[in-house]
Structure formats: C-alpha cells, structure tokens
Amino acid sequence: MTTLLTLKNLTKKFGGLIAVNNVSFDTDEKSVMGLIGPNGAGKTTVFNLITGNYASDAGEIIFDGNPITGLLTHRIVSLGIARTFQTIRLFQNMSVLENVLAGCHCRMKSGIFGGMFHTSAQKHEEKQAVDRAMKELEFVGLRRYTEQLSKNLSYGNQRLLEIARALATSPRLLILDEPAGGMNEQETDSLIGLIRKIQDRGITVLLIEHDMGLVMKACEKIVVIEYGSKIAEGTPGEIKANPRVIEAYLGTDEN
Ligand SMILES: Nc1ncnc2c1ncn2[C@@H]1O[C@H](COP(=O)(O)OP(=O)(O)O)[C@@H](O)[C@H]1O
Ligand SMILES: [Mg+2]
Hints:
Number of helices: 9
Number of strands: 10
Largest sheet: 6 strands, mixed
CATH architecture of the largest domain: 3-Layer(aba) Sandwich
CATH class of the largest domain: Alpha Beta
Bound molecules: adenosine-5'-diphosphate, magnesium ion
Number of domains: 2
Strand content: 15-25%
Distance between the termini: 32 Å
CATH topology of the largest domain: Rossmann fold
C-alpha cells in the first residue's frame, strides 16, 4: 500500500498550551482514516496544520512524497488537499452553485475575476467550471437545490455542500472535520455511503468525527489523540478493544 500523507513528530503550541504534541501517523492512499479524541484533544489543530492554516512549531508533513510543511493554504489546495470545516463556512447569501464555483475557481487559469473580460477561452473555462460544479452537486445529492441560497439549506445539506465544494478542487486527499455534526441518524447513514463513493473515486479521506457509528463503519484505520498526543492507532476492532482508548474516550458519554 502507498502512503499518501505522513505526519512526523508534529507539534503546535498556543502560548503555554501544547495543542499537538509530537504526533506522527501515515495515511494510506485511497483509504478512509479517522482521527478521534475528546473535545479539545487537538484534532482540528492537526487538520489546520495539514492544510497550512497554522504553521507548526516542529515536525514535518509529507504529501505524496514531498514536504508541504510551511506552504501556504492555496498552494496546498493546488497540490490536492481539500477540506471542510467543523463550523460550516459557506457564503450564506450566495447560491448553492456559486458556493461550489468558489471551489472550482482556485484551479482556473483566469481566476475568479477572469469572467469579467469574457474572452472565449474564459467563457469556455467558466462553462467547464459550471459543469464540474453541477457534477459534484449531483454526486452529493444536492442537484435540485442548485439555485437556492445556501442559508436556506438544512444543516445536513450545508455540510454536503461543503463536501461538494471541496470535491470541485479535484483533491487527492479530502479532510472532513466533523462531517456528521448536526446531522440526524438518516443523514449520517447516507453520509457513510457518500464517503464510500468518494473513496471509490480514488480519493483518500481523513476525517474527525464524534459519531462512533460512522467512525467504526467508515474508517479502515483510526488514530486516537488525547491532550495533543497520539495514544492509539489501529483498525476499528483494535481501537474498540484498546483499554487506554476506552478509558480516555469511548467509556465516557459526553463525547
Ligand atoms: N487558534 C487558537 N488559539 C489558541 N488556542 C487554540 C487555538 N486553536 C485551538 N486552540 C486550543 O488548542 C486545543 C485543541 O483544540 P482543537 O484542535 O480545536 O481540539 P479538538 O478539535 O480536538 O476539539 C484546545 O485547548 C483549544 O482551546
Ligand atoms: Mg475540533
């Protein structure tokens, strides 16, 4: 199996707080991997380090064999890493389609304002972006909401829209921060199906999720962190049976 992403001894401090402490793990290409742990464990910070939203204090991030540590976010996106956010970040007063187009534009040569000049090459590129956005909306099941304002979508559908927007950047690695947050049981079940379909496209998925049903069903490998440090790594079966994980995390109701 090929490794797509490697974190090596990654550390991030906020003042005196060590939010991520010497964390290392590998993510296999085309796999679905879960990152779990109690609230405040440092999971989102790990994602922010991978996507360049934060600079690490120590350690290395290797994507597809190349170090990406310290690169700017837009560069990391162009290399093939896309994400969604724990707190939904959509343009609420833009349509569903426009939100996905905002994702496509980072890969377009003429950029978001190129359309103002309307050369035929730009029109062609614009049409391709719309086609692509429609395809991703169809893929996540939001095709019928294309013209609606994002703010009018249900919470679960807004999460799907964020996934469509991320997919429109043609990622090799898709990072999902609590994708089932705010979803009901039925929406969560269909999200598991969607994650499988994403994997079937050859896209590697790395996700943070509190819904253990989803984590155990969707992930082939799970990394557990507590107080910024990795405390376990393994298959869902291994994680469920790990006494340290049960004590730190699975044994409590609050997560
Ligand atoms: N930008 C920031 N500035 C200061 N502290 C932060 C920042 N982001 C996260 N933290 C702190 O780092 C710790 C880990 O946060 P986070 O990665 O969001 O945890 P998780 O996603 O596992 O719930 C928490 O104590 C949080 O308060
Ligand atoms: Mg978080």
